[in-house]
Amino acid sequence: MPYSINIIRLLEKVDPTLREVLLAILEEIEKQRKQWEETVTKTEFNELKQIVSELAEAQKRTEEELKKLVGEHRKTREQLGGLAHTVGYILEDRAYESLPDVLEKELGIKVKELKRDFVEIAPIKKRDVDSFLKKVARVERHFPREKIFVMVTYQVSPQVRSYIEEKGIKLYLSYQLKMPRWL
Fold this sequence. Notes:
By secondary structure, the protein is mainly α. The chain has helices at 5-13, 16-38, 42-107, 126-139, 158-166; strands at 150-153, 170-173.
């Protein structure tokens, strides 16, 4: 208990029984003082209420901004999807124009007619190859003649390239194909 030297001197002059009572009172005062230090005052409480209120408002504004960002992110993803489709269409156009010449040059196959169909596979992964082959198997009965399977992509890993070759699919990278004249 921190007491001033003056109080200690005065206590030395007091009767021992009274000194014990006074020391007990001082100890209780010290105990109460420590409790008051740990207690929040009304002013402090009101300040905390104000801070909590401000934080709640900030939270609301943050949630509103986050909601806007989610909406903008959704729009961006839609635009990115459209861009991905555009790139895919350009790749298809390059393949459509170039494949007949490439197939004749490399495999001696004269292509009379090239048909465009909706199959989107880029960049190619093993599961894409397997999915492609499953689709081919489903339409196989509609086209009973001999077929050559061709995949065109921007890039492919060495493992997937080997897998494509194992499956008997002819692979072309986009840079191997001529750009359409209209681009």
